[in-house]
Design a protein that fits this description.
By secondary structure, this protein is of the alpha/beta class. 36% of the residues lie in helices and 16% in strands.
């Protein structure tokens, strides 16, 4: 049996209906933006392996730093102990994080980074003996798959079996074009109630919601309203962090600054799992008390794993190099040019682009994760040597920063081919408007 057949007998894959799914593609090696399969095929990783890979696969510099750390210290309990990689990484993260962040709490992944922020926010008010327990989030948001993260995410088919167990959240509209004022009014009304603990948001780009994008100016207004009413702001930068939006963090486009920031995905350059939640000193000081019950009782076995921190430090070295920053700008410019070239095609409902993130929403009757178009586009991408994982009828590109012009050309050519597939499916003209994200 080959690797895929062996896999089918024992593995349960994420986000996969195992009864109907095709055999997984067995990958045996990676280099740069490329992945190589067991049967000798080559694929461009145009989604950075679920948005985590910044600098390319099997990067020699990161590998070297990880190997050095493995020969020194692989892990140590982080309660009552510390180590150089965790301290140095926290110091360096705080140098580049939005102004005001002063503490780093390590965890394991994006969902746990969000869980930590939620618990910090709720316990912050509890420690201050102030009855604030509600959280505000965007209606189409996604913050992870653990229960707290699910609670502050959109109610969808993904979470339907668990709805009775999720805590109540106040949802407001995403402030996309034409909805800015309504979103602001919704937040103002909720903020006036006086019982809101925090507002959690994906800054500028809602990833799993369909790469929905909105302007920094309106987020500044929403955050300012929260600050005026004593509501904590939580920036979920798990996907948008480390250059994805064109700047180091999406928050760097804003005047207002958050109280907490959630990080993962690009945190280690895609090398291994690590999460981090930063907070300002105000949050931290609310947990300093002679009463031990006011402690933040949260932790993970692999909290601040030294090897993961070493990978994060190496990735940060690479991210801050001028060549990487030039690559980020170059990818953004190429995305913008390609978006302009296809935006008026009748098969294209909308093109969205922010930094290195490009999303094309094809007209398919209605936007849905379960669109039949999804499997067709996914298979077409693989047939053309490009890994693209559609969100229903929305196709997106978030490549590693090392991707070459030739590889980007191949990705864009594949996207043009997808447009032709959609064109073949429909004969009627592009509508003037359509209900998005049903």
């Amino acid at each position: 049996m080959n690797l895929a057949e062996r896999d089918q007998h024992i593995i349960w894959h994420p986000y996969t209906q195992m009864k109907t799914a095709a055999l997984p593609v067995p990958i045996v090696r990676g280099e740069g933006a490329l992945l190589f399969s067991e049967d000798g095929k080559t694929y461009i990783d145009a989604v950075a392996s679920w948005w985590v890979n910044l600098h390319g696969h099997a990067h020699p510099y990161i590998a070297e730093k990880v190997a050095e750390q493995l020969r020194t210290l692989e892990h140590v309990i982080f309660a009552g102990f510390t180590h150089e990689p965790a301290v140095t990484f926290a110091e360096r993260l705080l140098q580049i994080l939005p102004a005001g962040q002063s503490r780093i709490f390590y965890s394991d992944n994006g969902s746990t980074a969000v869980e930590v922020a939620i618990k910090m926010a709720i316990q912050y008010w509890n420690n201050l003996d102030t009855p604030k327990k509600k959280i505000i989030a965007f209606r189409d948001s996604y913050h992870g798959d653990t229960f707290g993260a699910m609670s502050v995410s959109a109610r969808s088919a993904f979470t339907a079996p668990f709805w009775p167990f999720l805590f109540e959240v106040e949802f407001i509209d995403v402030p996309t074009a034409g909805k800015e004022e309504e979103s602001i009014k919704q937040l103002e009304k909720l903020a006036a109630q006086g019982d809101i603990a925090a507002f959690i948001y994906e800054p500028l780009v809602l990833g799993t919601g369909g790469m929905i994008m909105y302007k920094p100016e309106v987020l500044d207004k929403l955050m300012a309203i929260c600050q005026q009413h004593g509501i904590l702001n939580i920036a979920d930068e798990v996907m948008t962090g480390f250059g994805r939006t064109g700047r180091t963090f999406a928050t760097d486009y804003l005047q207002q600054k958050p109280d907490m920031v959630c990080l993962s995905k690009g945190l280690t350059g895609g090398t291994m799992a690590l999460g981090a939640t930063s907070c300002n000193e105000k949050i931290y000081e609310a947990f300093l008390h002679d009463d031990r019950s006011k402690t933040l009782f949260h932790g993970h076995s692999y909290t601040a794993n030294p090897v993961a921190c070493a990978a994060g430090l190496a990735s940060l070295d690479l991210l801050l190099q001028p060549e990487t920053q030039e690559s980020i700008n170059h990818i953004a410019q190429r995305h913008a040019a390609f978006a302009a070239s296809i935006k008026d095609l009748p098969q294209v409902l909308e093109v969205r682009q922010q930094g290195t993130i490009l999303a094309i929403e094809f007209y398919d009757g209605a936007t849905s994760y379960f669109s039949d178009l999804r499997d067709t586009l996914y298979s077409f991408g693989l047939d053309n040597g490009v890994i693209l994982r559609p969100l229903g009828n929305i196709i997106y590109v978030i490549p590693p920063y090392c991707i070459t012009d030739a590889q980007l050309d191949q990705v864009y050519q594949t996207l043009k081919g997808m447009q032709e597939i959609v064109a073949g499916k429909r004969q009627h003209p592009r509508p003037d408007s359509i209900m998005l994200h049903d």
